[in-house]
Design a protein that fits this description.
seven-stranded antiparallel β-sheet, 13 helices, flat, alpha+beta
């Protein structure tokens, strides 16, 4: 059943208005949530007080009305028993499954794409049926602006006596309750703009969970050095931990700016990009046009809406380059919206040239990022190197904005989806490198199998994921025309990464952790997609079967088809599943030497069962790779 939540970036002003109650002595009270926390499920957040001695069989009918357009949404809850006394229904989960869901034209599409309602004046109405009472609230949807900086002013030069300056900014307008702030201060290195410094440099100071709009720079923090420049920015965070907006970036300094101790050496970077079907080949040429030897070079090449593959190859342009201590790895932001390839080598002699080549895969982003980020290869490039004992950091803008991304997407009939935000949260600290390796390995699989990647947001539920695939502006509409009939969908991560369904099966109870609705796109009970899911307790486990598949595909490992695996649910209510698994096992025995059967009652959880099945299927190959 499709439903949506009002974005946490939307601020609501709410006024409650009572309506007449039914003659029966049942009171319905629709709660008013705190300002800025109104969500779709609050439509069902009601208190029910049955002041009679009768138990009613009833249901809730909810509607949303817009001031000029009338009814834009309506639905009925499931039926429930209302005994005498007071009952508190806390939200959507208490009334699921919803029935008779209806949206006005354009509202369902807007909800799926943005997660909220358009700006306007709305009324929520809840009626307890049949004819037992109701309540209503009115609210206004307005978009919140970002915080704005006040002081220190942009370009301010602070004196030595102002080593503990006061930072001041405005709250977002309108501001939700419980808003908190993060302030980030970075040093602007020679050759950088304040925007490049904010994007690329480590924080000089970072304050989190600030409740006010004033901050005296802490005495315990790292002191500001005279003659240096700094940039600062403030981000507003709502009660759920999501960013409401970011301020502009301002710069300030202490005293006169001293000339850099190391002159900016002429290093030149050029870029060439070519597309092959669904992927792009990126080639960077780094030239040392100075008379000095550059040592310990590191290049950080970041792209937007592309996933980098850590397959960079480094080639000599002249004899003045060195291969020793060459390395390559990928890095991704938590949302996956920006990823980068990081590579380096030992030295580059005067007049030397180094050529680096790697690949990137297009990425579908969540709706709230898709509108803000344009696909760009190399939206920023940072190079660091050492001359003698001095270090130099340079930022370059050599972006490539491909106009043929729609063609790359249409070439793909294989979609691989996951949630980078959840993966990073589930793999904290040093394990985050495993997430980067996993995302790069997924991209390599997409390159080999003519696919692309899809990244869902952290709060996405099953319906939202399905909406991303098949909605009017869904990802599937941009893929190969064959995708809806014979395409492939690979889900990476367990239910806590990409949610699975609890799906009703005729003659049985709900089947938990089902991916069937992802394959039945048209609702005709036929599977249009080939759907698979890779499971594992951490990013490292998720990487192993993908890497094993690549090894088999590229001839580095061998799969002879001599083993088969049948996985079934438990006996009892699902006994037919077990019988069918055994029948299929007998059929497989005609062509397969070994057939293993796994039944649900042998394991505590469904995931435990599938993990055991994965181990038997891959066996020693997994052990060797682990």
């Amino acid at each position: 059943m499709k439903f949506f939540k009002i974005s946490t970036m939307v601020i609501l002003t709410i006024v409650a208005i009572s309506i007449g109650q039914a003659l029966a002595k049942v009171t319905v009270h629709l709660h008013i949530p705190p300002e800025g926390q109104w969500q779709m499920e609050n439509l069902w957040w009601v208190d029910l007080d049955n002041q009679t001695q009768k138990t009613y069989t009833c249901y809730l009918h909810g509607e949303i009305l817009e001031a000029t357009k009338g009814v834009v949404f309506k639905a009925n809850s499931r039926e429930f028993q209302l005994p005498p006394g007071k009952q508190r229904r806390k939200g959507r989960k208490d009334v699921d499954p919803l029935r008779d869901v209806w949206y006005a034209k354009g509202y369902e599409r807007f909800a799926l794409r943005t997660g909220g309602l358009p700006e306007g004046n709305y009324t929520f109405i809840v009626l307890l049926q049949p004819d037992l009472g109701g309540d209503t609230v009115e609210f206004q949807v307005r978009r919140s602006g970002p915080p704005r900086l006040i002081s220190p002013r942009n370009g301010a030069k602070l004196s030595q006596g102002e080593k503990l300056p006061m930072f001041n900014w405005t709250p977002p307008s309108p501001a939700p309750r419980s808003v908190k702030y993060q302030i980030r201060i970075v040093e602007i290195l020679p050759g950088q703009t304040k925007e490049e410094a904010m994007r690329a440099n480590q924080p000089y100071y970072e304050g989190k969970n600030l409740t006010g709009v004033l901050l005296r720079y802490p005495l315990s923090a790292k002191s500001f050095d005279l003659g240096k420049q700094f940039a600062w920015q403030v981000r507003a965070i709502d009660h759920s931990g999501r960013a409401i907006g970011e301020s502009e970036i301002w710069a300030f300094s202490f005293g006169e700016i001293r000339p850099p101790p190391v002159r900016i050496l002429p290093v030149n970077i050029t870029r060439q990009v070519t597309r092959t079907d669904n992927y792009y080949t990126v080639q960077l040429t780094i030239e040392n046009q100075s008379g000095d030897t550059l040592r310990d070079l590191t290049v950080f090449d970041r792209s937007a809406a592309f996933q980098c593959i850590d397959d960079a190859t480094v080639m000599h342009g002249t004899s003045g380059a060195s291969y020793r201590s060459t390395f390559c790895r990928t890095q991704a932001e938590s949302t996956g919206a920006h990823t980068a390839v990081l590579f380096g080598w030992e030295k580059l002699a005067p007049g030397g040239r180094m050529i680096v080549r790697y690949h990137v895969i297009p990425v579908f982003l969540p709706y709230y990022l898709e509108r803000l980020i344009s696909p760009t290869i190399g939206d920023s490039t940072t190079i660091s190197y050492r001359v003698g004992e001095d270090w130099v950091l340079r930022c370059f803008r050599v972006p490539f904005i491909p106009a043929d991304v729609p063609d790359a997407l249409r070439a793909a009939d294989y979609l691989i989806i996951t949630s980078p935000e959840k993966l990073f949260r589930a793999n904290p600290g040093d394990m985050s490198e495993d997430v980067n390796r996993l995302l790069a390995t997924m991209a390599r699989l997409a390159k080999e199998k003519t696919g692309v990647l899809g990244y869902i947001r952290m709060a996405a539920d099953c319906c939202e994921v399905l909406g991303s695939l098949v909605g009017a502006f869904g990802w599937g509409m941009k893929l190969s025309t064959n995708w809806f009939n014979s395409g492939y969908l690979l889900i990476v991560g367990q239910d806590d990464i990409v949610p699975a369904w609890s799906w009703p099966v005729t003659g049985f109870d709900n089947v938990p952790l089902s991916d069937y609705p992802y394959s039945d796109l048209s609702g005709d009970e036929q599977c249009e997609l080939r759907v698979g899911r890779i499971i594992g307790l951490n990013a490292r486990e998720l990487t192993i079967p993908i890497q094993t598949s690549l090894d088999v595909w590229q001839g580095r490992a061998r799969y002879d088809g001599s083993r088969g695996l049948m996985v079934s649910a438990a006996e009892g209510a699902f006994e037919d599943f077990v019988m069918q698994a055994n029948e299929l096992s007998d059929t497989l025995h005609r062509n397969v030497a070994e057939v293993f059967c796994i039944f649900g009652e042998q394991f505590i959880t469904q995931m435990g069962m599938l993990r055991e099945a994965l181990w038997i299927d891959c066996g020693s190959d997994l052990f060797k790779l682990s």
